[in-house]
Amino acid sequence: MLLYRYVDCMYHGYGEPYHLETWRVVKETPATFLVELYGVRRRVYKGARSRFACKTVNEALDAYTYRKRRQIAILSAKLEGAKMRLSTAKHAMACPVPLLPAPAP
């Protein structure tokens, strides 16, 4: 049996930006699959909402697009936070806070 997972390619600009990995099922239990690719083994939980690898190519593509949408949401939030902090820093540079006098000994 095989399970499928789409992953990002490391070399952007050369062909497709993602490719399909085919993981071979080594062992199956009632709750999990033990899969292997290039000597790397990974456990895939059957009942998990978000699976590492899927039974069909279409499910794998759906999982990939979900991961990319989630990645965009996370990185967009980080970008907005960075923009806000940059704006705050620029404002602080324009209106410097006066230094407090040194405490008396």
If you had to describe this structure to a student in words, what would you say it looks like?
With 105 residues, the protein is an alpha+beta fold. The protein has one domain. Helices cover 36% and strands 29% of the residues. A hairpin with a 3-residue loop joins strand 2 and strand 3. It starts with a strand and ends in an 11-residue tail after the last helix.
> What class would the helix/strand composition place it in?
alpha+beta
Distance between the termini: 78 Å
In terms of DSSP E residues, the strand content is 25-35%
What fraction, in percent, of the residue positions are helical?
A: 25-40%
Largest sheet entry? 4 strands, antiparallel
Q: What is the string of helix and strand elements?
A: EEEEH
pLDDT averaged over residues: 87
Q: How many beta-strand elements? A: 4
What integer value in Å does the Rg equal? 24 Å
Kindly report the spatial arrangement of strands forming the biggest sheet: 1-2-3-4
- How many distinct folded domains? 1
Shape: elongated
